[in-house]
Backbone:
């Protein structure tokens, strides 16, 4: 098994966790402000990352802090826009629109990094995009939440590209730590500023919020973004974006099992099956040898 295949499988694994997080985050959007939830989530992730990779911090330098903070800024903006968007759009629409970064990554990568994707990767992106449309589509009219989530997709596309740009000549573990830690700092600054600008809505740290913070902080952030950052050293940004299109597939599966705040779950449809098959076909075509 090649390093690239191992990296691709690792990224595929974390899309399972991310896919489960849409409905979980949707279920607490009315219970806690987005900035407070994300500050606590990324604090948990930072503590875990530092505990696991603290020995790597001995070699950290200013260039790593600068590069990691830039990646962390895109992560901060992307997650904030995604959680804010979930207030006025469905978990299904959020998963679909976020997945549109699969289109943005090869375009931006070609313009900024001069990395032209091969033909099979381009065909894979087309199939995966069609699969996203078939899988999710849109329910109802376009909302402000949909617009915020579209900007979120752009931020995540930039995050993938910046990781690819910096991973080749920077300690990858330190890059992952700084990315998570800098995003956590930005969320806490936002939390503090919100208290000065307007009195934030009061919230109670009940068991639902605590469990969501721990789950998304440990698995959805520390493990997932840590694995993504390290794995991208051995794969390409276009392949990364394509594999991440499996996120809404798993999101759909979890939406079939986990009820929302109203106690309702989604229903399996032909459109879901078609979308999943198109996305998986796109991934297989991308993996094919040129011959």
Residues:
């Amino acid at each position: 098994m090649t390093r690239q295949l191992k990296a691709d499988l690792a990224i595929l694994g974390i899309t399972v966790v991310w896919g489960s997080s849409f409905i979980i985050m949707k279920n607490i959007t009315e219970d806690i402000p987005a900035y407070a939830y994300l500050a606590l989530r990324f604090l948990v992730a930072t503590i875990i990352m530092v505990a696991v990779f603290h020995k790597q911090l001995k070699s950290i330098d200013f260039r790593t802090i600068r590069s990691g903070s830039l990646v962390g800024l895109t992560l901060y903006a992307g997650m904030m826009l995604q959680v804010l968007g979930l207030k006025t759009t469905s978990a299904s629409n959020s998963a679909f629109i976020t997945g549109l970064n699969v289109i943005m990554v090869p375009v931006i990568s070609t313009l900024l990094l001069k990395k032209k994707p091969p033909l099979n990767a381009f065909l894979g992106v087309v199939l995966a995009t069609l699969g996203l449309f078939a899988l999710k589509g849109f329910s109802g009219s376009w909302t402000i939440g949909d617009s915020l989530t579209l900007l979120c997709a752009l931020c995540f596309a930039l995050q993938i590209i910046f990781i690819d740009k910096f991973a080749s000549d920077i300690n990858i573990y330190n890059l992952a730590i700084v990315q998570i830690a800098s995003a956590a700092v930005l969320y806490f600054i936002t939390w503090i500023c919100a208290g000065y600008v307007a009195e934030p809505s009061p919230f109670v740290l009940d068991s639902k919020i605590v469990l969501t913070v721990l789950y998304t902080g440990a698995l959805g952030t520390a493990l997932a973004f840590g694995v993504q950052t390290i794995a991208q050293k051995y794969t390409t940004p276009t392949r990364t974006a394509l594999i991440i299109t499996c996120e809404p597939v798993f999101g759909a599966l979890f939406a079939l099992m986990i009820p929302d705040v109203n106690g309702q779950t989604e229903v399996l449809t032909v459109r879901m099956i078609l979308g999943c098959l198109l996305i998986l076909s796109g991934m297989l075509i991308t993996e094919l040898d040129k011959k």
